[in-house]
Every structure is written in C-alpha cells, then in structure tokens.
Amino acid sequence: MKRYIITLILLITCTFTLTGCxxxxxxxxxxxxxxxxxxxxxxxxxQIDQDVENDTSxxxxxxxTQTILDGYDKIKxxxxxxxxxxxxxxxxxxxxxxxxxxxxxxxxxxEEKEILELGKxxxxxxxxxxxxxxxxxxxxxxxxxxxIDRVKNFTEEKWNDFKDKLE
Length: 167
Known about the structure:
Elements: H1 2-23, H2 38-54, H3 61-75, H4 84-103, H5 110-129, H6 137-152, H7 156-166
C-alpha cells in the first residue's frame, strides 16, 4: 500500500510539473499560456529556415511585409492550434526578410533597413509565443509594432525604389 501511495504522489508531482511548465509567467513578462511549445514546432521552423536559404528566387519585400501585417493580428495574443498555420506563414515571411537583410550588399536607407529588420524582430517575438523567448517580452512587442508602423507609412514610391535596389 505504501508503494502505491508513493507512486501516486510521484505521478501527481510529475503531472503538475509538466503542465505547470507551459502555463507559468516568465521573467520576460510574457503572461500568456504557451499552448504549442517550441520543441513541438522546432523541426518545422528549422525546415522553413533551410528552405529559405536554399531558395534563390527574388522575393517581393512588400508582399513579405504584408504577410506579416496580415498575420500579426491573428497571432499577437499567442499561437494556438487554431492559428498555427497562420503562424507558419508569418514565420516564413519573417525568415525570408531576415535572409534578405543578412545577404543584401546594397546600400540601404535607415527606413529600408528597418523594413528588413522586421523579419528578425518578428521571429524574436514568435519565440515568446512558443515559450522560448529571451529578454523582455514587451520590448519584442514594441519592436514588431514599431516595424509594422514603419511598413504602413512606407509610400508606393519608396516601395518601388526599394524593389529596384534589391533587384
């Protein structure tokens, strides 16, 4: 009987520990529940990053930023089973922007650099949604939202100039 009680206590402790890890507030300030952990999607996102690196086609920066704009409203409260596909689209667009930023040899204006930095900032924010963020959560949110504001204020003429630089 004593062995059954000890086993029961261990099972309860393990269950509480495993479920508690996904629901705790982190030091970063991210207070949402992590429904999908980074370990659950890491392989998919690593594959996205690898596909982006192997893709030699020209990417439309405006379309990539639009994907992030459209998807951000759907994932900004956290990533769940319901919006996981949208999160993958946002992650892929962010990964492509980050890749362009790292691999462009063009002299860009500070505004254009900020547009490309939106990719890295978005990926950083998404790490919090998967329970793997580092730093202060609110800073990551502010970075992405400031980047989104920059994109919204980019004129058609600026987009055309930017596109010409990257071609």
